[in-house]
Amino acid sequence: MKKKDIDQYPFVVRPLTVDEGGGFLCEFPDVPGCLGDGETPEDAIRDGRLALTAALETLRDLGRDSPTPTKGSGQWRMRAPRSLHRRLALRAKAEGVSLNTLAVSLLAEGLGVRGAKKGKRARV
């Protein structure tokens, strides 16, 4: 299995509770039951990629098709109250960017702050 192929599969990393043993868990939604864990998010991702490689090789050896990695379109439509839309549009204009660029930047910033406050790091 090529590293490039493995990198196509999205994953989610979450902290494990003390009852679950602590550390972090890496899950691949496109390959149910394919998990990795580790003391750090990086360790969990590394372990998860090893598990993913083994799972995909096993499927191939059994003559089964590998699940197709989910790909997001990068687009969605969102309705917002007119007052919020107006405030965002004014801020985007003041910063010299599009409303979409501003919204994506604010969402990314909010996710980073939220993850930092909770002491966790999520990747997808």
Can you describe what's shown?
- With 124 residues, the chain is mostly helical.
- It folds into 2 domains: 3-61, no CATH class; 82-118.
- 48% of the residues lie in helices and 10% in strands.
- The protein has 4 helices and 3 strands, in the order H-E-E-E-H-H-H.
- It has helices at 3-6, 41-61, 82-95, 99-118, and strands at residues 12-15, 24-27, 35-38.
- It has a 3-stranded antiparallel beta sheet.
- Strand 1 and strand 2 form a beta hairpin.
- Helix 3 (82-95) packs across helix 4 (99-118).
- It is elongated, with a radius of gyration of 19 Å.
Task: Annotate the secondary structure layout.
Elements: H1 3-6, E1 12-15, E2 24-27, E3 35-38, H2 41-61, H3 82-95, H4 99-118
Antiparallel strand pairs: 1-2, 2-3
Helix pairs in contact: 3-4
What's a quick, concise take on this entry?
This protein has 124 residues and is mainly alpha-helical. Helix content is 48%, strand content 10%. It has a 3-stranded antiparallel sheet with strand order 1-2-3.
Spatial arrangement of strands, main beta sheet:
1-2-3
> How many angstroms separate the termini?
20 Å
| Count of beta strands | 3
State the share of residues found in helices, binned by percent.
40-55%
Order of helices and strands: HEEEHHH
Low-confidence stretches: none
Structural class determined from secondary elements: mainly alpha
Largest sheet: 3 strands, antiparallel
Rg, Å, rounded: 19 Å
The general outline is elongated
